[in-house]
Amino acid sequence: MAAWDAYLAAAPRSRFAVEARYNRGLALIRAGRPGDARAALAPFADGAVEPRGYRQREAAALIAALAARDAR
Q1: pLDDT tens, 14-25?
Q2: How far apart (Å, rounded) are the C-alpha atoms in residues 67 and 72?
């Protein structure tokens, strides 16, 4: 998590910043922080990340899986 945060702080508009933001969301899931993960992945799932639709399906599926896990 610290590495993604450091990368994004140092290069927030770099070529790989969008992928870094997505991977940070994955890291939040792995860290057991589902609420933070949902917040990080929501812009992807909503199609609000440029380029439009980038990782949209994957993020929506992850958010749905987190919701299903919370419902158990």
Answers
A1: 999 999 999 999
A2: 9
